[in-house]
Design a protein that fits this description.
The chain has 1 helix and 6 strands, in the order αββββββ. It is an alpha+beta fold.
Length: 100
């Protein structure tokens, strides 16, 4: 399942580009001090968990950006899909499960 705020495939690639740039500049260098929240419309599904970034951003495909992160509620690591929102903040939008 793909979740995206982008309206078109081209826009999704632009959002992914912006996400990679913003994360590399402002989040990864400060990963010990920052947490990433889930996007508002899906936060309840994840019990308002916050994710501590552990890895650099990775492109899974042209429009999907992933990071490894540590759940602040569960204490487990997993891969999370992230996006840069309209306010130029990084949000988690999904727990990434590798497609079968």
């Amino acid at each position: 399942m793909k979740i995206s705020t982008a309206a078109s495939p081209d826009m999704a690639v632009l959002v992914a580009d912006r996400t990679v740039d913003k994360y590399a500049k402002d989040y990864f260098p400060r990963r010990e001090q920052v947490t990433i929240s889930f996007r508002g419309d899906i936060a309840e599904k994840h019990n308002y968990d916050k994710i501590r970034p552990l890895s650099e951003a990775q492109r899974h495909d042209p429009s999907t950006v992933l990071i490894e992160g540590l759940s602040q509620k569960k204490g487990t690591t997993a891969m999370y899909r992230i996006e840069c929102n309209n306010w130029n903040l990084i949000e988690a939008v999904a727990l990434w499960e590798q497609p079968a």
